[in-house]
């Protein structure tokens, strides 16, 4: 009988087993054993994916500090990027692994969070007021860590915890243990970050947490959770953020599938699946998607700044990924990378760390987010003997609440207000507009990769699109349209380098008469140049879909903004000629504006929240580029 004798027998005999990993993927009836030497790399690009026989080649432990490869901020704890070079790979039946793993109680002492509940609540309050309230982003994840000391051998303890997770946890994407010799990671991560197989790249954003602590699920409470605006909008926001990533790594952006209910032993989540065709090197895919917004926030670059401002310690492996790289039968690269959450880290000396975070959005309450950190840690803490275990699943299959007709209906209803552009397969040229062939657009990114989604939309409408970052937009000659894009920050701070640079760019565009479209932050700066006063909203419009008037037509669009321009009339005289405004009838907030050769929108037409986003863009292109009537494909219809 085949058994995982090399590492597990060595542990049982008190010998050094050498580096190894045990991985059970979702739904598998076996566990993969990987063994080989552990090495270090400086960059993701240095991870080896050697050619040769098909199969897994490299298992990388990617710490959060690797985000510095993208130039993003972090509290740098210096953890190395390590990888296990897979020299031996065996598949072992799950039952045999369970027999071989130690069935012993896990004992720890001095367990406590490094940040107490009241202190964490105070951090939540500061982030809501100072960051989301001041336009720094839509959502942010702040972590805390439970620390303890293991009594007994750390590796044997970790293996016992793995056994409990394999028996008790359900719904995990990966249940795993990785032993490098200098650290041990054991966990049950619910979330695939990114995978590449058969030329298809997939991401799996998960958000929204229904807590049931392993008890009988209250159906009415579950349905209330599925209809809760805070939980719904939280998932929408991470969906938008991962669509931004897919816009970079997938050839035509990502298609949205779902949502689904992910049921686990102590809680349930809601999730989407994103898929798109991809021909890029898997290491580039991994780099461009560092790291999931579900464990960082959005927009990504500024989320990292916010995290660094409010977290006093480095994240180590929390919010990083395990990444299994290899080759398929055709020699193509493969990638499978779960997020490192619901994971415990052991040191050889016996220290134990269980990091966990909550997603903070405009609807958040301090008590709710404190409770969420406890709920998310429950599965791993139960496996470590630090919390109540979920009921044993027994021999009967677990009840699937996802099969309940009302649950399915509640999930399906979430897609009703969303943009069909991202929910349906798009044939090239299907919504292209007449008169745009051969025309070029430049998008200037203000530190929000919504611009990647915007590029796909404008490309689908028929433009050839180039995207550049705000510090170096390059020459403007040769472009029929310049789009000054979104980004975080206070548009009233005209001395800030980004604001000054984008204002100068807009002033140049207005003076030259080059057709200009401004989105969100770009719109606010354009409004300021036109003499409209800017205000910070009393309540931020972050991840908020609204029906608003846009030049005489009611449009369903998504907002990510804490600031707005305001006006008292629908037409004003500006320094570049008359300006037509679409305003909120209540407070005068300017949702859109247009004049001779320029237009701006406060909302994000590219967002999955913008049901009418494609139609708005089609209309604006008609205004800016003197385009003939729409094509017969009906792109100006509800998009």
Question: Describe it for me?
Answer:
Its EC number is 4.1.3.27. InterPro entries: ADC_synthase, Anth_synth_I-like, Chorismate_C, Class_I_gatase-like, GATASE. This is anthranilate synthase. It is a single chain. The protein is of the alpha+beta class. The chain has 15 helices and 30 strands. Strands 1, 2, 6, 7, 8, 9, 10, 16, 19 and 20 form a 10-stranded antiparallel beta sheet that branches. Strand 25 (534-550) and strand 26 (553-565) form a beta hairpin. Helix 3 crosses helix 9, helix 5 runs parallel beside helix 10 and helix 6 (229-249) packs across helix 12. The protein starts with a helix and ends in a 14-residue tail after the last helix. The model is unreliable at 627-639 (pLDDT under 50).
General form: globular
Structural class given helices, strands, pairing?
alpha+beta
Oligomer: single chain
Radius of gyration: 25 Å
State the helix count.
15
Mean pLDDT over the residues: 90
Helix content: 25-40%
Strand count, sense and barrel status of the largest sheet are:
10 strands, antiparallel
Q: Uncertain runs with pLDDT below 50, 5 residues or more?
A: 627-639
Strand content: 25-35%
Number of strands: 30
Distance between the termini: 58 Å
């Amino acid at each position: 009988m085949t058994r995982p004798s090399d590492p597990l027998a060595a542990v049982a005999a008190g010998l050094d087993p050498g580096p190894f990993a045990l991985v059970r993927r979702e739904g598998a009836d076996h566990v993969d054993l990987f063994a080989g030497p552990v090495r270090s790399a400086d960059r993701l690009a240095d991870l080896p994916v050697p050619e040769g026989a098909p199969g897994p080649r490299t298992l990388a432990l990617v710490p959060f500090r690797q985000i510095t490869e993208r130039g993003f901020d972090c509290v740098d704890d210096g953890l190395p990027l390590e990888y296990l070079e897979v020299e031996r790979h065996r598949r072992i039946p799950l039952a045999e692994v369970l027999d071989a793993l130690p069935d012993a109680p896990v004992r720890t002492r001095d367990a406590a969070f490094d940040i107490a509940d009241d202190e964490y609540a105070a951090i939540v309050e500061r982030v809501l007021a100072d960051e989301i309230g001041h336009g720094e982003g839509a959502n942010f994840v702040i972590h805390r860590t439970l620390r303890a000391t293991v009594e007994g051998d750390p590796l044997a303890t970790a293996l016992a915890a793995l056994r409990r997770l394999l028996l008790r946890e359900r719904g995990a994407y990966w249940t795993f243990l990785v032993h490098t010799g200098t650290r041990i990671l054991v966990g049950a991560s619910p979330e695939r970050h990114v995978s590449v197989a058969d030329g298809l790249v997939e991401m799996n954003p998960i958000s929204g947490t229904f807590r049931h602590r392993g008890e009988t699920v209250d159906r009415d409470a579950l349905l209330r959770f599925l209809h809760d605006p805070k939980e719904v909008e939280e998932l929408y926001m991470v969906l938008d953020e991962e669509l931004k990533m897919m816009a970079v790594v997938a050839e035509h952006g990502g298609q949205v599938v779902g949502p689904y209910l992910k049921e686990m032993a102590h809680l349930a989540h809601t999730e989407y699946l994103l898929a798109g065709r991809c021909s890029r090197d898997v290491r580039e895919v991994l780099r461009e998607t560092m790291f999931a917004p579900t464990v960082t926030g959005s927009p990504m670059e500024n989320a990292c700044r916010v995290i660094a401002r409010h977290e006093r310690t480095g994240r180590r492996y929390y919010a990083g990924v395990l990444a299994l790289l290899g080759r398929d039968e055709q020699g193509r690269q493969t990638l499978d990378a779960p997020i490192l959450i619901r994971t415990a880290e052991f040191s050889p000396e016996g220290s134990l760390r269980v990091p966990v975070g909550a997603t903070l959005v405009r609807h958040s309450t301090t008590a709710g987010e404190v409770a969420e950190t406890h709920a998310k840690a429950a599965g791993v803490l139960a496996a470590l003997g630090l919390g109540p275990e979920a009921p044993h699943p027994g021999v009967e299959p677990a009840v699937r609440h996802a099969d309940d007709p009302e649950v399915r209906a509640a999930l399906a209803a979430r897609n009703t207000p969303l943009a069909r552009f991202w929910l349906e397969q798009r044939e090239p040229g299907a919504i292209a507009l007449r008169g745009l062939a051969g025309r070029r657009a430049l998008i200037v990114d203000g530190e929000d990769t919504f611009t990647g989604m915007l590029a796909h939309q404008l490309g689908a409408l028929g433009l050839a699109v180039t995207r550049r970052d705000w510090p170096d937009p390059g020459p403007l000659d040769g472009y029929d349209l310049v789009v000054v894009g979104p980004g975080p920050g206070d548009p009233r701070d005209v001395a800030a380098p980004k604001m000054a640079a984008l204002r100068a760019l807009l002033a140049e565009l207005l003076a030259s008469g080059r057709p200009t479209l401004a989105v969100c932050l770009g719109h606010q700066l354009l409004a300021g140049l036109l003499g409209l006063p800017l205000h910070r909203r009393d309540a931020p419009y972050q991840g908020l879909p609204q029906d608003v008037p846009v030049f005489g037509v009611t449009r369903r669009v998504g907002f990510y903004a804490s600031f707005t321009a305001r006006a008292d009339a629908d037409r004003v005289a500006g320094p570049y000629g008359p300006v037509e405004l679409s305003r909120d009838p209540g407070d005068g907030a300017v949702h859109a504006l247009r004049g001779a050769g320029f237009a701006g929108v406060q909302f994000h037409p590219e967002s999955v929240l913008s049901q009418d986003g494609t139609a708005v863009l089609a209309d604006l292109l008609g205004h800016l580029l003197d385009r003939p009537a729409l094509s017969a494909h009906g792109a100006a219809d509800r998009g």
